[in-house]
Amino acid sequence: MDAERKNYYEVLEIEPNANPQQIENAYIRSRNAYSGDSVALYSLMTKDECDSILGQIEEAYSVLGFPEKRREYDRLRGFNQSGLKTPNKMEKIHTVHSIEDRQKDEIQYENFGSNLIEAKVSKLTAQKKFGLEYEENNEMEGKIRDCNDYSGVFLKSVREYKNVTIERMAEMTRISKTHITAIENEDVSKLPADVYVRGYVYQYAKVLKLDPDRVATSYLLHFKKLKSQK
């Protein structure tokens, strides 16, 4: 989480109109997800990264967990007050939890701790698996933006530009390397029926963060022209 971009509500993954109980529950849930000795979590994030996130979680709760501080924070950040409710005396009484109640909540979330960590790990795994790391080139970005005819040659150039190997493309799309190569080489003889080709190109485009509908439709028109010439 980037403290520069994320506000306290985003840090705890709640809405600005969350009630005190929801804030406390989110705090416990978030804290449990990033603390402990999860081997799975630390295989994706370093301990320092987890500690940094925990620090942001504590900071967010130190403000949102207290009505006076929260109201001042909302006022300074310009949140829509219509979605917030100033607690009356009875509500304030209900937001004051005994030590026993707090311990019960923590035990409850500790019981679900492994599931929460697994969910966070799954999200991080997906981000790492489908994330693209490449240096942007304005000329190439312009070609991609203006392209109306996605040929196999152009798709290959985009894949290589975004540093995605054929092996990784096959892993992410579950499409065979043979079919991926045939799509790029426009080898009609090695590709299945049109409907399957469209599905393959759709998945190919998604991996490259392109508009999948636009790319698949464009390529299929190009593909049909090639078939008609055979």
Nutshell version of this structure?
The chain is mainly alpha-helical and 230 residues long. Helix content is 68%, strand content 0%.
Can you put this structure into words, describing what you see?
- Helix 2 packs across helix 7 and helix 2 crosses helix 8.
- The protein is built from 14 helices and no strands.
- The N terminus is likely disordered.
- It is mostly helical and 230 residues long.
Properties at a glance:
230 residues; 68% helix; mainly alpha; 14 helices; disordered N terminus
Strand content: under 5%
Radius of gyration: 25 Å
Helices and strands: which structural class? mainly alpha
Secondary-structure element pattern, one letter each? HHHHHHHHHHHHHH
Stretches where pLDDT is under 50 for at least 5 consecutive residues are 1-5, 81-114
**Largest sheet, strands/sense/barrel:** none
Number of helices: 14
Write the layout of secondary structure elements.
Blueprint: H1 8-11, H2 20-34, H3 39-42, H4 47-64, H5 67-77, H6 89-95, H7 99-111, H8 113-130, H9 138-146, H10 152-161, H11 166-173, H12 177-185, H13 194-207, H14 212-228
